[in-house]
Write a structure and sequence with these properties.
By secondary structure, the protein is mainly α. The chain has a two-stranded antiparallel ribbon. The protein binds NADPH dihydro-nicotinamide-adenine-dinucleotide phosphate.
């Protein structure tokens, strides 16, 4: 099998599994966080789970990126930096920032599947940028797709990180409990951190103008939209005073 055949085959498999994921997660909630439940096999400490699950997206990306002939060209380098900005944080800083409920654990099955996907995603995007993306020359810096994509990435990143920080602050006020988050993106939706994540990777896909990037946005949506709907239902069922006009993930729409 040539490298091209492998790359295209894996890409196709990710598109197909995004479809399978949205169908599966519309039916069953991934067992972690507020949907953690017994009966899903062994569990591990929450922080360790996050590191193991997310780090392949950073490390595997690095490995494949630096085997490519375009690794030291300006535009691929910039895209590599924004990718790593997100993933170094998510893998090695975020897990030690979250306020974990005492004794909380997470399901190994979720970590194993997430880790496998993150490795595949690192392979696809790292390989694409430095092996295949011939359009990412210096001229691409002034292309509207690049400019808009980077702006979207920045906005999504801010929305995601600020919303996650607000949730941490809520936990600090009331350790071990869930409360109704209020303010900023929570004025519109229950899960602004998920919305931020989707906008971040839409920006990356646009800025890199790649099917690898598109596969990641679709997979992220397949993961996060059903969970946002489930979390929104959970909030409404748990808190009788939950704001009635707040949507799940897309302001005014969903
Ligand atoms: P959640 O919003 O469910 O939880 C984030 C943290 O905040 C957890 O520590 C959670 O505690 C705590 N928390 C949540 N709601 C409340 C509340 N109402 N009151 C107090 N504390 C609260 O997000 P996830 O854990 O699902 O995801 C974390 C990050 O990872 C997000 O930024 C998300 O976008 C990203 N992510 C990306 C994915 C992708 O496919 N790209 C997939 C999954 C996540 P507890 O754990 O106890 O519930």
């Amino acid at each position: 099998m040539t490298d091209d055949t492998l790359f295209n085959g894996v890409l196709l498999a990710v598109f197909a599994s995004a479809l399978a994921t949205v169908l599966l997660l519309s039916w069953v909630n991934a067992p972690y966080g507020r949907h953690q439940s017994s009966g899903w096999g062994p569990t591990i400490p929450v922080r360790l789970g996050w590191v193991l699950m997310e780090s392949p997206a950073s490390l595997v990306f690095f490995y494949f990126y630096f085997t490519g002939q375009q690794a030291f060209q300006l535009v691929p380098l910039l895209l590599m930096v924004v990718w790593q900005l997100h993933y170094m944080h998510r893998s090695f800083i975020y897990p030690f920032q979250i306020r974990v409920k005492p004794g909380a654990r997470t399901t190994m099955l979720v970590i194993a599947l997430g880790s496998f996907y993150c490795g595949i995603n690192g392979y696809l995007n790292g390989t694409y940028l430095s092996h295949y993306a011939n359009h990412l020359t210096v001229d691409w810096l002034t292309d509207p797709r690049f400019i808009l994509g980077v702006m979207l990435f920045g906005f999504g990143y801010y929305l995601n990180k600020r919303s996650d920080r607000m949730l941490r602050e809520l936990r600090e006020q009331n350790p071990g409990a869930y409360q109704i988050p209020r303010g900023f993106g929570f004025n519109w939706v229950s899960m602004p951190n998920y919305l931020g994540e989707i906008i971040t990777w839409s920006g990356f896909a646009l800025a890199s103008w790649s099917l690898a990037g598109l596969s990641f946005v679709l997979f992220t949506m397949a993961n996060l939209v059903p969970r946002a709907l489930a979390n929104h239902r959970w909030y409404r069922e748990t808190f009788s005073d939950y704001p009635r006009d707040r949507k799940a993930i897309i302001p005014y729409i969903l």
